Amino acid sequence: MSQGSPLLTLSAIDKSFDIHRVLNSVSFELARGEVHALLGENGAGKSTLMNILIGVYSADAGKLELEGKPLKIGKPSDSARQGIGMVHQHFRLVDRLTLTENLLLAADDHPQLKSRAAAREALLNTAKEIGFTLNPDCQVGELSVAEKQRAEICKVLALGARILILDEPTAVLTDSEASSMLAAIRRMAESGRSIILITHKLREVVGFSHRVTIMRRGETVAAGLDTSDLSIEKISSLMMGSSSTSLSPDGIDSKKAPSNVQEHGPDLLAISHLNARRDDGAPALTDVSLRVRAGEILGLAGVGGNGQHELTELLSGIRSASSGSVMIDGADALGLSPRQRRKLGLRVIPADRMASALVSDLSIAANLSLTSVVSGRFGRLWLNRRRMQREAQASIEQHEIAGARPSGRMGLLSGGNAQKVLLAREIDSGMKLLLAHSPTRGLDIRASALVHQRLREAAAKGAACLLVSEDVEEIMALSDRICVISAGKIMGELPGDASAADIGRLILGHE
Amino acid sequence: MSSFRLTLERRQQVSTLRSTTTYILGLLLGLGFGLLVLLSAGAPAATLLDDLVIQVFFSAMGLAQTLTLAVPLILVGLAATSAMRLRFWNVGIEGQLWLGAIGATLVALSDFGSESLRLPTMLLASAIAGAAWIAVPLILKLRAGVNELVVTLLLSNVAYLLLQHLLFGAWKDPVNSFPVSPRFDENEQLASLGFGNLHSGIYVALGITLLMTILVQKSRTGFYVDVIGRNRTTALATGIPVTATITLMILLSGALAGLAGGLIVIGVEHRLTQTIGINTTFSGIVIAFIARFNPLAVLPTAIVLAGIYNAGGTLKVFYGIPDAIVVLIQGMVLLTLLMVQFFSSYRVSLLRQSAQQPGQPST
């Protein structure tokens, strides 16, 4: 599809937030009339790149060109004026207004749409052109999710978009709705528009896109490959990264340690036939069974949102199961409070540490001593605050938590140092079972390597570790055994030295 | 062509100096606006200092009256503090106060228990009644997730209707044409300290302030409250007894409000009347906010506010300025404090920018 000069070119785009570089010389090219799939795991930088394109962020460096001319975008309305529109996962529609009114609301820069009749007409024409049926006089609040999505697409197109960015358009749709949406996407491309399709579903990529660009960790790992030359396996290995070795600076080894699979000994964690529901009542976990022995790390791989969150909450004791059993160190734990589970030796590093393990508005000393206060180590009725400060100081020195004072506010620490605080608190002498969910999310390489080292040390000291992670490289670097979760089900178990492609196949449901 | 743009940036860390300065600034600003309101309502500028400061804090009778008014204000301030530290919006302090007054009166009128223990029984009854009144929204919140704002607020009205039902019915003093209860016996009144109307209830208020300070700053429960108030999920996940702590602190909040009501009827009025609880919810919350939820700071805050109330009484008698002005001043001080807080946590700056190239990266 890449005949002639490209419609849109983004070249060597850099973007950092504070000290975190999220885009590193990223390039992207879009041809007229193509469906271009943009792929990458969570946090690969896709959203940041698209937000730069539509003017939510501005790039630190790099060039944007439209039809060979420099493209200057300072705010979202600039991109709209250039004919670039994005359909977000969360629609930008006002429920209380009709579809026509929603278009009027968005048509600030479009004098030709400023009358109700003209806006209505434009919506109907757009819908007809791409084969949607919609009623412009219907209140948006009464539409189904799929109808809202069609409405949003029509709105963006009626505003004159010739480049349309679709962020996970099928994530909210049923299978049949999804196939008709994908067919419509092809029709839009055939009518001369260019589509950037962000998706996690590789089948859609292979079936409906012309070209593919893949991002990983803020870099372009494959730019503008022809889809027809690619297989799902090839794409998934590019997405996940094929090598499991990454050596960080400062000599902290992130490489795979010798396997520690434990053939004997008791299961410190035994989950059997566990079922649980999500907050909205849909099944989150279906017949999940896992076991972890002392001294080993079990990696649970999978794309985010497939039940990992519910599983970690359930094991921590802040979510209840609908059936099944969880045994921690031989004791039935399902009916136990978080406090009783901690007494059995459970320690937790949750995915969102600031939301559910630390308190950003309290002091670092308070955060370090939180669980000890609960266990009564600083006094049952009155707290020995001086001892808390003293031990916090010792802990800060021992774990080299940079920039931390016992009385300093927790929320001011960087992600890596905050994670050090959490590790220092959780990995203590009472630990038997360590549950770590995405423990390196948002951390830089050095901090990640340190976290990995701590997890390995924990296992070496005889703890059973359950590592839940969406980062396949992390799973491969640490796990002695690997299980894969998808749609709340355990898809299978692999040995610790399984390849990314093997894991990817299970993640994507190709047995 | 160039244009200006206002930007708002959240400060990473607010220094103690900055937060203290802005706090004092807000306080002064609020009081300044309050003065303007007073002047515009007809208070004479010449004697304002005398009326507002000298008479209420530096004259014996004035100070006695101020401290008498401060006793219940200290308790409602602590009641609000106790709940607000957990981000529990107890806007039914008034209702709990009514129930406390009713509880104490019930013990007095029914001559319940031995005479020698009558006073402590009355105080205990007022605390229990206040706690019982807040138990309803507490249970609804913990069990069914019902918003406490609505329930505590509405129960205040229910409490007031209950009070009127009693004062116009069973408890109406037959020898009085006003809707008030019969006067309590001598042994059912707190000892007067021989300093205006001031009664021994001030010791109760001081003692409870001290206990609350210790509870909040030194105890394990106080630590739990800090965690739960700031991050409930973390509190649950780390095994803090969340429900027990919330139950304790909220019942305490109701009990303190009830005790405030009890102290007013036992110490000052010596009977149940239908005016003692008006506006106490608002005062309690204002005091807690100004004191930044620190029990020890509630003490001076409540005394200053009592002084303003006291001065309000004078202004009303001499210049015909309505009571509502005092509430208005409280509200203004609270608003300015909240507004300056915004300026201590955000940095506002005016940027000059060229409109020609809005998208140019600033390299």
UniProtKB/TrEMBL annotation, chain A:
Annotated organism of origin: Marinobacterium lutimaris
Name of this chain's protein: Nucleoside ABC transporter ATP-binding protein
GO molecular function: ATP binding; ATP hydrolysis activity
Residues in ABC transporter domain copies: 8-242, 269-507
PANTHER family (UniProt xref): CARBOHYDRATE TRANSPORT ATP-BINDING PROTEIN MG119-RELATED, GUANOSINE IMPORT ATP-BINDING PROTEIN NUPO
Keywords: ATP-binding, Nucleotide-binding
Domain of life according to the entry: Bacteria
Pfam families: ABC_tran
TrEMBL record, chain B:
Protein localization: Cell inner membrane
Transmembrane intervals: 21-46, 52-76, 88-109, 121-140, 149-171, 191-216, 236-266, 272-291, 298-319, 325-343
Top-level taxonomic group: Bacteria
Gene Ontology CC terms: plasma membrane
Pfam families, A to Z: BPD_transp_2
One GO molecular-function entry: transmembrane transporter activity
Alphabetic keyword roster: Cell membrane, Membrane, Transmembrane, Transmembrane helix
Broad class of where this protein is predominantly found: membrane
InterPro entries: ABC_transp_permease
Coiled-coil ranges (or none): none
CDD domains listed in its UniProt record: TM_PBP1_transp_TpRbsC_like (cd06580)
Membrane topology, record value: Multi-pass membrane protein
Official protein name in the record: Nucleoside ABC transporter membrane protein
Species, as recorded: Marinobacterium lutimaris
Classification lineage: Bacteria, Pseudomonadati, Pseudomonadota, Gammaproteobacteria, Oceanospirillales
